[in-house]
Amino acid sequence: MKYALLLLAITTLTPAQDLGKQGEAVFSKSCATGYCHGARGTNGGAPRLAARGFDQEFIGGTVARGIPGTAMPAFATTLSRADLTAVVAYVASLNGIASPTIAGSGGPPVPAAAKLTADAARGRTLFSDAVRGFGRCSTCHEIGGLGIPVATPIAKVPADVAALKILATPQVSTATLGAESMPALVVSKKANAVIFYDLTTPPPVLRTEASASIQTRDGSTWRHASVISAYSDAELAAILTYLRAVVKL
Amino acid sequence: MRTLAFLPLVLLPLSAQDAAVTRADWPHYGGTQFSWRYSALDQVNTSNVKNLLPAWIFQTGDYTENLGSTPIVVDGVMYLISAGARVFALDAAKGTVIWQYRYPTPRPGIAGSHSDFIQNRGVAVGDGKVIFGTKDNFVVALDQKTGHEVWKVSVDDPKQCGCNITGAPLIVKDKVIVGGNGGDQAHRGYLTAFYTKTGRAAWRWYVVPGPGEKGNETWKGDSWRFGGGAPWLTGSFDPDLNLIYWGTGNAAADFYDADRVAAGTSKSKDVNLYTASMVALDADTGKLRWYFQEVPDDVWDFDSSYEVLLMDRVVGNGSRGQMRKLLVHMNKSGLTFVFDRVTGEFLSSFNVPELSNWISGVTEDGKLVGRNEPEMGKTKNFCPSAAGAKSWNSMAYSPRTGFLYTPTNEICTDITPNDTKPTEGRFFMNGDFPMKLPPNRTTYSHVDAWDPVTGKRVWSMPYKFVLLSSVLATAGDLVFTGDPEGNFFALDARTGNKLWSFQAGAGHRGGSISYSVNGRQYIAVTTGFQQSLVGGAAVGLFPEENFRAGSTLVVFALPEGSR
Q1: Closest chain B residue by Cα to residue A67
Q2: pLDDT (tens digit, 9 = 90+) per residue, A61-120?
Q3: Is B301 designated active site?
Q4: Which CATH superfamily is domain B19-557 in?
Q5: From the list B150, B161, B204, which residue is nearest A208 (CB)?
Q6: pLDDT, mean of residues B320-329
Q7: Parallel, antiparallel or unpaired: strands B309-315 and B322-330
Q8: What are the residue ranges spanned by the domains of chain A?
Q9: A85 vs chain B: nearest CA distance in angstroms?
Q10: What is the CATH number of domain A2-94?
Q11: pTM of the entire structure?
């Protein structure tokens, strides 16, 4: 509560010029980039924003919610509340609104960013390290919105690297299609079709096969150790440290 | 009356490149995998094109962006994808829906990155499947007969790479090869091949080599990690050589090189490999067989990802003339290269745009000279712009005339570089680059005919705004393309004279094709102008105009009984 009050006080006392500066900074980083609105909202691939006669309510709504079905994203979830307020005020100023009303800070306080130890932070980078290609953890696991959620959310972190390598994977079964058998993670079995991830080689392939043509049985020769070989033991240990820091039991 | 009695004005000593032309079907993004966008059908020709009328019209119902794709036609069925990945199988003679598929709401990417734009340039059809890439970076295979999903595989996480797939895949034998975008972001581009049967990964080729690989030494420090180079369009395939050819994207950051090029590096050759290059890969293994970097140290966003035309032509005069297997390739700057596609040997180049100030010329062995680069702390005007002398829409080639047909825009840009540090998946262009109309002109684009062997412009038809639609050439000696005002028109392939025009109701950004069903020739064009990216920039350049969005396919034919 004290934190929220403090935020309120800061926001109320922030001079308009500072807000404008912050807004311009946010704008140049999030809105002027690439093929979007261009510097000061005047040039770019997306529509011009300066001197369009927009009112503040329209600007606020569009920035927060985006324009569905277009390239204009909803920034409500990606920008902090302070940045959101600042960028709306900035775009308002581009439209001749000299003293934009500053929205009250009635929202919930922004939680402090999770503090990770150096080892855990390294683990976080390794978890989705693009250099590993399809050999990275995020090929099959999603943590904090990053990664492809092929496996169910990680609920229990193995005690050490050895345990990670011999991880039991009872969900993986064996699918037989014609003459070929493959490790499979079954997603659904319907009357006419079986949907499963084919785990033969990373990345997993979500396949749909006619029920009549496929048999599945429990158990598989597939091993978790076979898909984490892009990492050294030390790297895997760092990844486990990261998982311990972020996976809530 | 048919015009078959007329002989071509110039008898070109052509080899039998029968596989390079389309007939009843339009099986690939570029017509065939030689990417000529040329139909051998001649029922519609210079004498009767004035009688063309709409035969059927199809509205996709997906009006979120443009209709920028190129349809595929196989055995009388058309396969069409909309910007938001609704896929339709249509009776190509009537336009009735055989099946339709709607890709579910994609996972969000990074706001403001490439992964946030809605675009799809086409499907590939083969092995009984219709295969396409998605906004959230999946490759999806549908059953060609039913439209049911067969397999689906994630190529990369759009939340991390800020990248996605907008180009049409290329099916080569038992594999489908897909590129992706993201080279304007902190991202390292690649091509990935999947088996069409199972969706399993077969190989991946990184445009930017990793540590220990040849070419990595052309990158300063760790800059290779986010070096860009994304090959975001569709390549070509020569089955005799078993090579696939692909153009690669610009180096990242686009407009600022001090973090990726070591001080004192010679820029004449091989800087930041293999960005802005033409590469030939072994179709089975994805191994690099040859490369030629067209823009060493690209600091203008002149990536080289555009279509790759494979043609056999005689090079040299008289007794010294020799049939060569050529590869013709224009990059974003409008500089067009001619290579021997067997060896990668540079043969010649020619510059298509009228306004060009980024280099002063090209040497006889293909090196750029007189580089005029963006400068820190300054704003400098460059022509052409990062929107491209030609955008990603394809040119066409007619073996009857021997000419390339290409739409060119005379648009410039003010580049102000900056040295922002990269964050993975975020835009990493390091510059403002507003588009500018060049002074003292009344027309800002033109459709030209060029002879790729002589490098000479044969004719040019000016147009007042920009041209962002692919070109179709036919054996009826017609050249078709469309403009942002909605006009779809036919030019005489030999003279450039406009023979026919039709107001299609919305601006053109996609591709036109020709095919036949039961002996009747059809010309199909996608309509609906792009409102973001390059199309959006065009809208911004001409604020008084109304380049209409939409998502409609219009199909033309000669009236029944008049053929």
Answers
A1: B64
A2: 788 777 765 667 778 767 777 888 888 888 888 877 766 654 433 333 333 345 899 999
A3: yes
A4: Quinoprotein alcohol dehydrogenase-like superfamily (2.140.10.10)
A5: B150
A6: 95
A7: antiparallel
A8: 2-94, 118-166+224-246, 172-217
A9: 17
A10: 1.10.760.10
A11: 0.88
